[in-house]
Amino acid sequence: MRIVLVGPPGAGKGTQAALLAERLGIPHVSTGNLFRDNISQGTELGREVQQILREGGLVPDEVTIAMAADRLAQPDAGDGFLLDGFPRNIAQAQALDELLGEGGHKLTAVLDLEVPEDEVVKRIAGRRMCRKNSGHVFHVEYAPPAVPGVCDVCGGELYQRDDDQEDTVRHRLELYHQETEPIIGYYREQGLVVTIAALGPVPEITQRALAALPEADAA
Fold first, then answer.
1. Distance CA 37, CA 85 (A)
2. Gap between the Cα atoms of 9 and 6, Å rounded
3. 81 has binding-site annotation
4. Out of 57, 99, 143, 176, which residue is the most buried by the measure of CB atoms under 10 Å away?
5. Is the pLDDT of residue 219 over 70?
6. Neighbours of 123 (CB within 10 A)
7. Of the residues 13, 71, 123, 128, which is catalytic?
8. So what's the pLDDT on residue 163?
9. CATH top-level class for 2-115+179-212?
10. 81-84/28-30 β-pairing
C-alpha cells in the first residue's frame, strides 16, 4: 500500500503513522527523518539542507522532492510506504504523482486526520515539557503532573515551549490551511481521500483508519 497521511499540527500524525506503518508492514517515511538522516549521513542533499536551516531558510521543494525520491527508491519501500509530512503542497503532490507514475505505481489512499481547530490549539498549547529531560511530556488537561509545574519522573521544572504558545499554534494552522490543506482537494479529485475522525483514544483512531483503507487487513 502507498499511503499519504495528512492533517493539521496536533492531529496525531506521527503517532498514527508509526502505528499504521507497523500494522501494514510498510516503512514510515517522514520529512523530518529524511532531513535528519541525510544530514547525519553527510549526503550532498543533507549538506544543502543543513546550510539552508543554519541560515534560517526554508528547504526548497526540489530538495525535499529529491530526498523523498531517494528514500522511496530504497528496497524496503518497493511494496509500499506511508508518507508523513510529504507532500506538503500541490507542487510536491504533483511531483510525487510523476515519481510514482514512472515506476508504474500510484497512491492507494490519502488519509486525512480531521480534528477541530479548537482541539488542535488545546492539544498543543496545553503541552508542558520537562527542562531536565525533554522526553518527559505532560499536558495540563489530558496528562497533568501530580504537582503543577513539576515533572513526576525526575522533579524537573515543566515549561511551555515557544512553539506551543497559542499565538504560534494558530499561525502554524494558518500556514497549514494555506499551503498543505489544498492537497486534500487535489487528491479528492482523484478519489483517494479517506477522512478519519481523529478524536478519541489512539487505538480507536488507528482501527478507524485501518478499516477505511482499501485492501487493509485490520486484524
1. 15
2. 10
3. no
4. 176
5. no
6. 19
7. 13
8. 87
9. alpha beta
10. parallel
